[in-house]
Amino acid sequence: MPDPLNARIKTMIVETLRLEDVDPASIKDDEPLIGTGLSIDSIDALELVVALEKEYGIKIKSSEESMVALSSVSGLVAFIRQKADPSRLPPA
Amino acid sequence: MPRAVITGVGFITSIGNSRTDVERSLRELRHGFKNVEFLGNPRIAVRVVGAVEGFATDSPNWRDWTYPERYRFAPEALRSVSPHGLYALCACEQALEDARLGAADLSDGETGLFCASAGSPFLFHHHLRQLEEARGERGSPMGMVSSIAGTLNFNLAAHYHIRGAVCGFVSACASSSHALGYAIDEVRLGRQKRVLVVGAEETHAETVLPFAAMRALSVNPDPGSASRPFDRRRDGFVSSGGAAVMVVEEAGQAAERRAPVYAELAGWGQAGDGHNVALSHPEGAGLAQAMRRALRDAQTPPEGIDYVNAHATSTPMGDRSEAAALRAVFGAGGGPAISSTKALTGHALSMAGVLEAAICALAVRDGFVPGCAHLEEPDPACDGLRLPLATVEGRPRAVLNNSSGFGGSNVCHVLKAFSA
Lengths: 92, 420
Prior knowledge:
Number of helices of chain A: 4
Order of helices and strands of chain A: HHHH
CATH architecture of chain A: Orthogonal Bundle
Helix content of chain A: 40-55%
Mean pLDDT of chain A: 88
Distance between the termini of chain A: 10 Å
Strand order of the largest sheet of chain B: 5-4-6-7-1-8-14-13-9-10
Oligomer: heterodimer
CATH superfamily of chain B: Thiolase/Chalcone synthase
Shape of chain B: globular
Distance between the termini of chain B: 13 Å
CATH architecture of chain B: 3-Layer(aba) Sandwich
Number of domains of chain B: 1
Number of strands of chain A: 0
Structural class of chain A: mainly alpha
CATH superfamily of chain A: ACP-like
Strand content of chain B: 15-25%
Largest sheet of chain B: 10 strands, mixed
Mean pLDDT of chain B: 97
CATH topology of chain B: Peroxisomal Thiolase, Chain A, domain 1
Strand content of chain A: under 5%
CATH class of chain A: Mainly Alpha
CATH topology of chain A: Non-ribosomal Peptide Synthetase Peptidyl Carrier Protein, Chain A
Order of helices and strands of chain B: EHEEHHHEHHHEHEHEHEHEHEHHEEEE
Largest interface: A-B, 9 and 11 residues
Largest sheet of chain A: none
Low-confidence stretches of chain A: none
Shape of chain A: globular
C-alpha cells in the first residue's frame, strides 16, 4: 500500500510549483528532486521548503540540511518523519 | 547636436493593448474604466478603475498568472517580476518589434534603459507578511527584486541584456517623464544610440487605496464620468495601470536602420514648485516654468505648439493649478488645443508621462488631437483655454506633454513632426 506521507509530498510538489502537466504518482521516489526531470532549481526548492515547514511545523535549518532533506522524495519522507510532530503526519 | 527621435512604442493600457487599439480609443474617445470592489469591501467609496484586459495577476504567485498568448516568457523571466513587470515585458516586445530591433541590437552597449514605477506594493506587502509570519527567518529570494521601486530596470536590463545606461527614476507621477527627459539628453549628448523608456504600474488595492487615504481619488461610481479633467464637477482621479514603452533613438542611427520615425523629441524642461509635499502650486508656477524651459530647449515659441497633452488628473486643485500655468504660458484665447487623455486612460501614476508622450507621438504621426472626453461643464478656472470636446483631425506641428509629481516636480516634453 502506498505511503500516504509519500503521496502527500508528491502532491505538494506539484501544487506548490504548479507543475500542471506532472502526475504526482509519476515522480520517482529515489530520483534527485533538484536539477532533474522536474526542472526544479534552488529557488523553486526554497518555495517548497517554506510550504513543507508550514504544513509539518518543522524547520530546515541550513542549506546543508535542505540538501539532505530535498535529495529525493524518499529523503524528504524520512526527514519529515524524523523531525515532525507525529500528530501532524498522515496516518500510515 | 545629435537629434532624438521616437522609433517604437508599446502599450498595455486600460484603453488597449496595442498601438492600433490605443489609437482607436483615443480617436473615438472610448474610455477604459470599469467598476471594481477593492478588497471585497463594498464600503470603500472608490468604485472605478482603469484596469488592463487580457491579464490575470491577482495572485502573488507568478505561476498563477495568465497573459495574452502572443507573448511567451520563460519561468526565469517571470519569477522575479511583479504584475507590472509582466505588463512591461509585453509592452517592450511590442515596442521592439515596432522599432524593428532585435536582441543583438539591445546588448550592443549603446542601448540604455530608463524605467519608472512605484514598485509593487501588492507584492512587497505579500513578501513582508511572509517574512513576518516566519518571524524573519524565511523570505522569498525574489522578494526584493520583484517588488521594490527599481524592479523594472533590474528585470528588463537582465532580460534584454542591456549593457548601456540603466537607471530608474522616482518622482511619483512625473517619474517616467523624467526618464524620457534624461533619455533625450543621453541621446543628444551622444552617450547612447538609443534608450528604451519604460513606465508601468498596477491597479491592485495596495497601489490604489493609499491615494484614497489622501482623498485624491474620485468617488464617483460612474465609469463614464468619474474621470473628467477640467470639468467643474470633477472630484478626483481614477487610478490606472499597465505599461508604456518608447524607443528613443538618435536620428542618424534610425535613418541608417531605415526605422520608421514617429516624431522628434525636440526638447524638454523641468522645474520644481518649491511649495508643498503633495499639493500643486496654486498658480502652477513650477509647471509654467517647466513648459517655458521645454519650449526654449525645443526652440519653439508658444505659438508653434498646436496641442498640449495636459497632466490634468481630474482633481479639483491640480487641474485648476495647471489651467493657471497654461494661461501664463499661452495667454488666454487662441492658444493650442488642450486635452487630458486621463479622461480615457485614467491616471497611470509614474507611467503617465511616457504613456502620454507615446500618445502624443501617435497624434503627431497619424494626424489627430484627442478631444476632452467627459467634459460637460468646463470649470471657469479654464476660461480662455481651448478645450475641444471632439477629436480634431489634422497633424499638429508640435505638441507639449505635461507631467507633475509629488513635491511639485514638473516635467514637460516637446514633440515635433520629424523632418530630416
